[in-house]
Amino acid sequence: MPDGAPDGLARAVRTYLDHLSVERGLADNTMSSYRRDLRRYLAFLRERGVAALDEVTEQVVADFLVRLREGDADHPALSATSAARTVVAVRGFHKFAVRDGLATADPAAAVKPPSPAKRLPKALPLADVEAILEAAGAAGTTLALRDRALLELLYGTGARISEAVGLDVDDLDLVDGTVLLRGKGSKERLVPLGSYAAEAVDGYLVRARPELATGTTPAGALFLNSRGGRLTRQSAWAVLVKAAERAGVTRDVSPHTLRHSFATHLLDGGADVRVVQELLGHASVTTTQVYTLVTVDNLREVFATAHPRARD
User: Fold this and answer.
1) Choosing from 14, 99, 184, 274, which is the catalytic residue?
2) Active-site residue among 67, 259, 260, 265?
3) Are 44 and 38 within 8 A, CB to CB?
4) Rounded CA gap, 145 and 128, in Å?
5) What is the reported pTM?
């Protein structure tokens, strides 16, 4: 705790940190963050002449948040994410102080952590996606057939990587062209497979999976590794990265990139955001709407380059 911090405040913080360490068992790194954040908070209270917990007001806590975002002579300005972490520590401290009888009111309850800026999903251009899919199956080997089927399914359905590697053969209906995906919270959704993905998966099932299967293969597992076991998330990720390298795609690529690309390309093609929400398995349309920001950016770029009154 900082030199000169009022004894009561410093003692209350030490009590809270002991609670976090002993009763809640927080990890050492987390404890270090809490300790650093609350040390800075105590220094701010000392600067403001606050000598006791019940002298802290909501305005004081709000001013501390402003200081975090603006920085000072001793500290650089914090990002929204870092400032939010510090405010969470302060809110937890005051809530504990009231619950433990160290204070009569919680001045931090109404001070909300700043919301981090929305990070727009990074989607690949369609040409890059097609190049990756072609590169995945180019060798024509057993594993290449599997890789092409896996990536076609990821891009063709917008499935999460965990949903794809968890698929069983019986989850597929190649006649109707659908696949049953099990998402977060074991929620199920039936989504169209698409002709390219259906063809790739059918080719894998007929020509490749029987060669990969062994006597110890998990019953029904769809995507198998070279030893006959179920393909893992890590291995599926490696399949995509290697295919991107062979395709000459230099952007950072992950299985989630294909999911982002699936959603963005649908919206660019005129799909309704609520339909995309259902396909992605989002519980709220708000989660899906971040993709509409991407498509607006695309529209703005096209407008800026194509409209005679938009160009310089």
Assistant:
1) 184
2) 259
3) no
4) 19
5) 0.60
- Burial of 148 (C-beta count, 10 Å sphere; 0-12/13-18/19+): buried
Among all chains, which residue has been given the structure tokens 């975090």?
Answer: 68
Q: Which of 120, 146, 98, 309 is nearest to 242 (CA)?
A: 146
Instruction: Say which amino acid occupies 215.
Output: G
Look up 282 and say whether it is catalytic.
yes
| Given 46, 94, 146, 160, the catalytic residue | 160
Phi, psi of 224 (to 5 degrees): -110, 150
204 catalytically annotated: no
Q: Kindly state the tokens that stand for 107.
A: 């001045």
> Is 184 marked active-site?
yes
Question: pLDDT tens, 126-155?
Answer: 999 999 999 999 999 999 999 999 999 999
What is the tens place of the pLDDT at every residue in 79-108? 888 899 999 999 999 999 999 999 999 999
220 token code pair: 């029904």
Separation CA 41–CA 89 (nearest Å): 9
List strands edge to edge, sheet with 172-173: 172-173, 178-182, 188-192
- Summarize pLDDT for 194-218 with one digit per residue, the tens: 899 999 999 999 999 999 999 999 9
H runs (alpha helix) in 100-168: 126-137, 142-157, 161-165
